[in-house]
């Protein structure tokens, strides 16, 4: 069975992807600096002889060179700063952990003769387009956050490695991904605020932000399908369901699941949570559907399942 590697392998999506790939019989190495990732997300795999965890930072090029095995078939590159709001406060965070980190992994892959990369980009590359449905070939791409800008820079470098060094690349631009082991995001945030003080809930922005939320299993299924079925040298896919949900609807669902009544809801001014937040985004999914992808959960169902699983843990 093939050897594969996940960067960001102890994170939310990376740990679920790891569980999936191990179940399919692959030999898996997971790299993570544990800045956001947690050992507990992968601890159940530590006794599996086909699993290896390496605590390493993608910014440390020499360490990467030492730990990457040239027998690896595909690198699933997930490591990044996934906290968009933090990146708005300090732009160097995204530059280092997305642009520089992606360059480092590409360079080490090149040196070791590893040529296949599966990259989790983000819908932030599209910028603030409003209600219009966005297909993969939309342009010009004008991101409004460092998160989006550095994701775009990573896509561009990957594209050049495909051309210059005969790499093969699959890239996805997912909607908001949610589920168990989520360590940030609106649902996680609401639950934690309410646990601390159940009398009030502060919502960033007017609560009308309207986005698509996808359950983790639907994303893992998309990654597997794309990796298995798309044989082109380079491909890009949006990954989103057709449904959306507003932040106010999410807040009501969290309150209901936590059985909280008479909670004072405060909104901050403006149509978005923070500068760099894209308040309304709608992605097409026809390209992904054309290779056989069907999602199981609507945005509403995904949010409910996530609230329930985060409340149990
Ligand atoms: N969660 C979403 O809604 C969503 C949507 C679109 C794209 N993505 C992308 O998917 C990927 C995974 O996201 P996630 O939600 O699982 O986030 P996450 O923060 O749980 O996972 C990222 C992991 O990368 C690790 N990491 C960060 N910088 C590193 C570095 N320099 N060296 C080594 N490890 C490092 C972190 O510790 C973390 O475990 C990210 O690239 C993210 O941008 C996520």
UniProtKB/TrEMBL annotation:
Q: Which Gene3D superfamilies match?
A: NAD(P)-binding Rossmann-like Domain, UDP-galactose 4-epimerase, domain 1
NAD-dependent epimerase/dehydratase domain: residues covered: 4-240
The domain of life for this entry's organism is Bacteria
Identify the PANTHER family for this entry. Answer: DTDP-D-GLUCOSE 4,6-DEHYDRATASE-RELATED (PTHR43000)
Q: Give the family per the record.
A: Belongs to the NAD(P)-dependent epimerase/dehydratase family.
Q: By what name is this protein known?
A: NAD-dependent epimerase/dehydratase domain-containing protein
What lineage, starting at the top, does this entry show?
Bacteria, Candidatus Roizmaniibacteriota
